Amino acid sequence: MAKRISTEELTKHATAEDCWILVNGKVYDLTNFAPEHPGGADSTLNVILSAPSSQLMALAVITKYAGKDGTKTYNTYHSASLIDKSLTDAEKKGEFDESTTTAAWLAAQQEAATPKVSSDEKPPLSAIINLDDFEQAFAKVGGKKAQAYISGASNDLLTLNANKSFWQKLWFRPRIMRNVASVSTRTRMLGCEVAMPVWICPMGIAKTAGEEGEKALGAGAASSGIVHCMSTAASMSVEDILSSAPKTYPFFFQLYVDRQRHKTEAVLAQINQLYQIKALFITADLAVVSKREADERIRTQEITSVYSSQEKSRIDKKGAGLARTTGGFIDPALNWDDISWVRRHTTLPIVIKGIQSAADARKAMEMGCQGIVISNHGGRALDGAPATILVLLEIRQDCPEVFERMEVHIDGGVRRGSDVLKAVCLGAHGVGVGRPFQCSVLYGTEGVETAAEILQDELETAMRLCGVTDLEAARGDMSYLNTSELEQYLPKPERRPWFAGLRARL
Ligand code: HEM
Ligand SMILES: Cc1cc2nc3c(=O)[nH]c(=O)nc-3n(C[C@H](O)[C@H](O)[C@H](O)COP(=O)(O)O)c2cc1C
User: Fold this and answer.
1) Which end of the chain has less Cβ packing within 10 Å, N or C?
2) Residue 307: what pLDDT?
3) Domain 4-117+294-309, what architecture?
4) Of 13, 37, 78, 377, catalytic
5) Is 377 a known active-site residue?
């Protein structure tokens, strides 16, 4: 990249058909790459969309910066090295010649940058007293796009809402007079000593929530004694995220299996070298891209403005809100036989994330997995899928042996320390919390620490008031729970083969 590129030359390549962009002091030709650039807002997806209008969306993400400086937006979503790794030498056009910039050019760059968090009206951290407050703070000051991305879920948000409200249908049966002056929440999850059985869910592009991104999640988890499960779709490199915590501090790694299996094999080879990573969470609930309407609406606006400014609107009759089809990255052919393939490429415990039925929990156990996460992707996968706490109850009733043979984790709508206690009493080994932690990145590492501290404090309080002194000892002890209200939502016993079997055994 020895050649120097002037502002004048850069601005000559300012269309979708001839698209040069300045990123971190270097000029790149993204013409060929732009149509392939993922346009899906769920970082979880890493998807290259295939429908024509979806391609248009993808294109718009990049072409918006044609002939301009895309550094600010690029750095919000990506690690510095990604672009050099992804493009060919011919596409690296040269160093940008800063001496050629003009006031007008610099002003134009301001418009192109994606607005980030505005500091107006940001509540002080001291005003945050529960996990919902983090989401509300973010809704107030986070950018519109980031807000749609983080809070969004599929279609009518049925599963998103059920995840949260169903925790409230499970009631406690407290015990009293038990000397709860001191309580212990310490336990082990997947071989890691933790202060409480909580992990931070894998969530893509954490830099959308704040500049420290995944580093805040890693550092905050480490200083709070919990574990951060990093996403395949993180906005920072694995090494950068690991560097946020002390050298021996544990992390989990979440994997999407790529259609191009050799790419997944390369990721696994890299992860195998990193002794800080203690478990591999394979996400299996998102075989195809779901529809996230909040995000699609924002993208529609973006596309409209990009193409109307070029007087060349190409939005088809169906608009940009077409149901998205997969085309890229995540392999929809992933199936249970692939566990043995993954096993050949990793030495880590394998945890299947996205279990939504007792039958699949049993299957994971029979396949020799070390753990499962009952999850529906926080309502971002199949809308209408059951609330996760209901699935935990179903597994508990139908195949309790699962809890003996592997670790059972759960996420989705967990917002209170008392939810953690409920999950543990039903038998869970660990509980994942997603959006509130992502939103806490708005306040950097301190925000993440505060979120963990709130959960820890609420958990200890719930334990004391319920008469539980040792969380580990209470695992699976359903005498602390009244499940009656929840049970009416379980599938009928005749539709639950394992349940019938259990009855016969009793
Ligand atoms: C050539 C290198 C690049 C690669 C391999 C790449 C890859 C990706 C991937 C995989 C995603 C999906 C996000 C995720 O799920 O984590 C994404 C999102 C995104 N990328 Fe890139 N990208 C590149 C360059 C750029 C550039 C140059 C820009 C802008 C100047 C950009 C802006 C964005 C934005 C804004 C998103 C979020 C998508 C959305 O709007 O929802 N990327 N990119
Ligand atoms: C912004 C966002 C990004 C996510 N990205 C991923 C991901 O990359 N991989 C994954 O397995 N799950 C991903 N998820 C799902 C979470 O890991 C988790 O299952 C879910 O958020 C839990 O629900 P909660 O947010 O209600 O706590 C994402 C969720 C959100 C909100």
Assistant:
1) C
2) 45
3) Roll (3.10)
4) 377
5) yes
